[in-house]
């Protein structure tokens, strides 16, 4: 069986980050929870998805006109016009992927933001 050249293997693999490029992550997670989060973001989401979704959700519920959100008029960009259903879906994925203690703290943080809804 023929082997692929190493350059081809590297070209087919996901893009690596530059040395100084940082991925936003959630604060307050245990090392095990952080590893679970990184695994989830690498396999099912995108790097930094959890922190970005949580930040967007907190900003969305704090905005005074969040109850007037209309899916037909929104652009769908996470930083501009986030879809609340999509945000909650990402946050639920993260909560289910984390270990029990970290998931509890994460759900409490999401619930605290949801109180403003």
Brief digest:
54% of the residues lie in helices and 0% in strands.
How does this model look, in words?
The protein has a domain of 80 residues. The model has no long low-confidence stretch (mean pLDDT 80). Helix 3 crosses helix 4 and helix 4 packs antiparallel against helix 5. It has 117 residues and is mostly helical. It has 5 helices and no strands.
Outline the secondary-structure elements:
Layout: H1 6-12, H2 31-43, H3 49-62, H4 84-97, H5 100-114
Helix pairs in contact: 3-4, 4-5
Radius of gyration (Å): 17 Å
Shape, principal axes of CA atoms: globular
Helix proportion of residues, in percent?
40-55%
Question: Which regions contain 5 or more consecutive residues with pLDDT less than 50?
Answer: none
Strand count: 0
Beta strand %? under 5%
- In angstroms, what separates the terminal alpha carbons? 59 Å
**For the report, how would you describe the main beta sheet?**
none
Spell out the helices and strands N to C: HHHHH
Number of helices: 5
Record keyword descriptors for this entry.
mainly alpha, 117 residues
